[in-house]
């Protein structure tokens, strides 16, 4: 058996589903060969015609501002809220995020203790 159209594919899926329902209702599975044939035909059709979505690729943060932005997203926080959590002004956090100000030791400690940012990453990227 070979499935060549979407209509045949849908029909085969319905048939398989009816066999599965009959089997789960306690009926004797006398159609094993038919089920196997349908399953193989469905699989072949899907291999040829069904496009699987690409997996979502999440880019690893490469800079401290990227990490802070990721943490803000994870915690559903705005910059103002993140600044408050870190104990710094919104202006200072903005400067750090835009690369106008370097991370000092106190902020590095807070990033580690409050957000769990890897200390090695902080030292390498600041």
UniProtKB/TrEMBL annotation:
GO molecular function: DNA binding
Location of the HTH cro/C1-type domain: 74-122
CDD domains: HTH_XRE
UniProt protein name: Helix-turn-helix domain protein
């Amino acid at each position: 058996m070979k499935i060549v159209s979407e209509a045949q594919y849908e029909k085969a899926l319905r048939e398989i589903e009816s066999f599965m329902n009959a089997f789960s209702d306690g009926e004797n599975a006398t159609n094993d060969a038919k089920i196997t044939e349908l399953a193989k035909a469905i699989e072949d059709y899907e291999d040829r015609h069904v496009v699987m979505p690409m997996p979502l690729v999440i880019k690893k943060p490469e800079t401290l501002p990227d990490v802070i932005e990721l943490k803000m997203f994870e915690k559903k926080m705005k910059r103002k809220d993140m600044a408050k959590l870190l104990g710094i002004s919104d202006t200072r956090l903005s400067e750090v995020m835009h690369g106008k100000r370097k991370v000092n030791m106190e902020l590095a400690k807070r990033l580690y203790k409050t957000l769990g940012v890897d200390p090695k990453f902080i030292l390498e990227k600041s």
